[in-house]
Amino acid sequence: MANAVPRSFLQVAAKEEAVAPPVRAVQIEGLVILKIIKHCKEFSPALVTGQLLGLDVGSVLEVTNCFPFPVREEDEELEAEGANYQLEMMRCLREVNVDNNTVGWYQSTLFGSFQTVELIETFMNYQENIKRCVCIVYDPSRSDQGVLALKALKLSDSFMELYKSNNFTGEKLREKNLSWVDIFEEIPIKVSNSALISAFMTELEPDTPVTQCDYERLQLSTNPYLERNLEFLIECMDDLSMEQQKFQFYYRNLSRQQAQQQAWLQKRRAENMSRKAAGEEPLPEEDPSNPVFKPIPEPSRLDSFLITNQIANYCNQINGVAGQSFSRLYLMKALHEN
Fold first, then answer.
1. Distance between CA atoms of 239 and 304, rounded to whole angstroms?
2. Residues whose CB falls within 8 Å of the CB of residue 78, separated by 6 or more in sequence, listed in order
3. Name one GO biological process term (predicted).
């Protein structure tokens, strides 16, 4: 009976771990957000990354600290140095009693161009050791328009399962009921500050309700931002057209192969009829060694899904900025009339 209690306890613990609730929100300390913004803006327009540290509590992922990765070029020796740098930083944080549990990473982006294969591969590498992790994406160019462009992303479970099998054919996607909008999941972000910091910020607030940030939101110069978004949108449309040409070429080859197969089968059946008339054994109607029956691999639809997702992101950004610009123009028109 003495061994029964620990065994049942382990079973319950394993069961609770297996049915862990999904991440519903990401709670970030205000200081962490400021450190992310400072790091991304200092190196803009270059893209930077960093590590997120915190705690995994139920359905909430708490981000309590972060540190930047050194900017380096693609080199095996430098990559090894970068890994050692991360381990050394986490060891130093542990020595000063700071949360050093990795919960994901953050990265900057330019005009929302973050939906790439590299981001998916990074997610899969993290998933090998950390089952519940997020990526915080910050866009300095979008934030200059008066909006805090901060997103918390994760890969959907259905997409990760399909990515591990590396089978992005049309039949498999229809079977999983997976579309281009099901690749990434955006998780709500909650900003958390201690009571002392909140009280201090209240003391710092000026008496006047209008601040310089409020005036900056009335700037009418949105042309550069719209132009760059349109340029990226045109590039994505060209990439999507190239992906469609790949599928057209595949379907042409498939139709040609099917026609060759039908011609070969008709020829073989006619030959078998003559062999039967001569009292000989008929030949098999399928010949795997024949190049005509070799299956043509279907192109992966992952790139087209990512490009379509990116196009939707650019369109949403253009609509948002255009809507704000119209509101500002009408506001300025009313002020001039008065």
1. 8
2. 72
3. translational initiation
Are 114 and 146 within one domain?
yes
Quick one: 26 and 147 in the same domain? yes
- 301-317 burial: b if 16+ Cβ within 10 Å, else e: bbbbbbbbbbbebbeeb
Tokens standing for residue 163: 């990515």
Checking phi first, is residue 39 left (phi over 0); if not, alpha (psi -120 to 50) or beta?
Answer: alpha
pTM: 0.70
Question: Is the distance from CB of 152 to CB of 187 less than 8 angstroms?
Answer: yes
pLDDT of residue 9: 37
User: Is position 9 within any domain?
Assistant: no
129 plus 256 within the same structural domain: no
Q: Cα–Cα distance between 178 and 168 in angstroms, integer?
A: 10
Here the tokens at position 7 are: 């065994």
Cα radius of gyration rounded to whole Å, the chain:
28
CA triplet 85, 86, 89: central angle to 5 degrees? 85
